[in-house]
Amino acid sequence: MTLAEHLAELRRRMIIAVAAFVVAATVAAVFYNWFLGVLQHPYCHVRPHACRFYVTGPLDPLSLRVEMAAFGGLVLASPVILWQMWRFITPGLRDQEKRYVVPFVLVSVVLFLSGCATAYLIFPHALEFLISVGGPHLFEILSPNSYLNLILLMMVLFGLSFEFPVVLVALELVRVVTPAQLLHWWRWSVIAITAAAAIFTPSSDPFSMLALAVPLVVFYFAAIGVGKLLGR
User: What is the domain partition of the chain in residue ranges?
Assistant: First the structure.
């Protein structure tokens, strides 16, 4: 294909991906109340009789609905978007490379969703800690925007962090590092993973830090084992 043909193909794939996002965002806007209820559930678990959100500005409900529609549209349209990306790059791959790409993509999707689910499940514990850390003299009035920004940021951060073993295995396959080197560095790696979890966890509570650091340590040693198997 010529450069013009590549650009035309890229434009066609992008148009399909954008159209899928617009349709998915419309669906998410229609089911806005359901999506909001799902994300509000951790708060209702902590405060079963007082899990209400309060807005402080006339534009807050509109901005909240737009934000929820955009996030829901991105999640719902992600299979179509990933498929368009795959269809764009696959003509340039050899059969050997295609054989590796498919498992990598599937594992990446599964790990990302697992990270999002982990953040969602531990969020009630994080929220309870954050609410109670100020003492009994404080009473919370939560804004839906700040609450949703926190829980969505947690889910995205956990999802991206769970891609850690995929990156390590890829580095092992291209021989940037070897399994023996990773095993030799394991003590410093555990310290670095723990420090990164403490620094980058948005909620800064101990439950979320442990929920992020422990799986990453397990993934580190799992990546060493997978690297050895692929090397053989």
Answer: 1-92, 94-232
